[in-house]
Amino acid sequence: MIRERIYTIPVNDAFAEDGECALCRMKRKLSDDLVTYFLGASLMEPDVRVSTNAKGFCREHAAALYNRRENRLGLALLLHTHALESATAAKEALAKAVPRGKGGFLKRTGIRENLLEAAGRIEARVSTCAMCERVEETMARYVDVVLWQYFEEKEFRTKLDTCKGFCLTHTADLLRGAAKHLDDGQAEYFAKVLARVTGDNFDRLAGELEGFTLLHDHRNRDKPAGASKDALPRMIRKLESDVDLD
Ligand SMILES: [Zn+2]
Ligand SMILES: [Zn+2]
Q1: What digits encode the pLDDT tens for the residues 193-233?
Q2: pLDDT > 90: what percent of the chain?
Q3: Distance from the CA of 106 to the center of ligand 2, in angstroms?
Q4: Which of 22, 125, 153, 238 could serve as 14's disulfide partner, Cβ 3.0–4.6 Å?
Q5: DSSP letter, residue 58
Q6: What are the distances in angstroms from CA 113 to CA 62, 64, 98, 122, 240?
Q7: What is the 58 CA–ligand 1 centroid distance (Å)?
Q8: CA distance 179 to 84
């Protein structure tokens, strides 16, 4: 198990904060730090450039890099080389979609398969992201640390036992992590904990969301909103993980 402090500090910080999913909080902080990293000195590091040239960024992370409003020259340089590689790959994929037979005549057979193959090749390039790759690697370590600390540190165990649960995506990640890292007894114990924490907190939040709907009834006009006030965005994030909402 990995116990380095570079992983335990963000895990403990996230559990110290209040909210619907500690892993979402870790992921948000990590993504913010990575935006800083990719717009910083890493821009000039050859191994980083090899990765960003080949993979580029997904929609979410390209937007995060642009919207930071910092070092747009660096971002432009980085995307320029990535765009050249992407354009070359796209041109190759498109050229293969229209193969020429003997004498330069277009072959009609298999053209649909060729188009689908070219579409697949182009989509495969679009779906890669140098930042997502790092996020996934680090999040896997965080899950590992959560599980390790749960069974090693009493204080952390209490924190997880009494937390507000996790979003559905991270509940699944914790289950996968438990299956991978824990022994049978621990896995069974953790599954029970997760079932209780998830069940209790979905019930709580569903109650708060219902409270939100009741606030719209004019008879409840003067009642205090309490926890129901922001139950809708919290439920969206519980179901769909950390979504950016206005
Ligand atoms: Zn989450
Ligand atoms: Zn990404």
Answers
A1: 999 999 999 999 999 999 999 988 877 777 777 888 899 99
A2: 75
A3: 39
A4: 22
A5: -
A6: 31, 36, 11, 14, 35
A7: 19
A8: 42
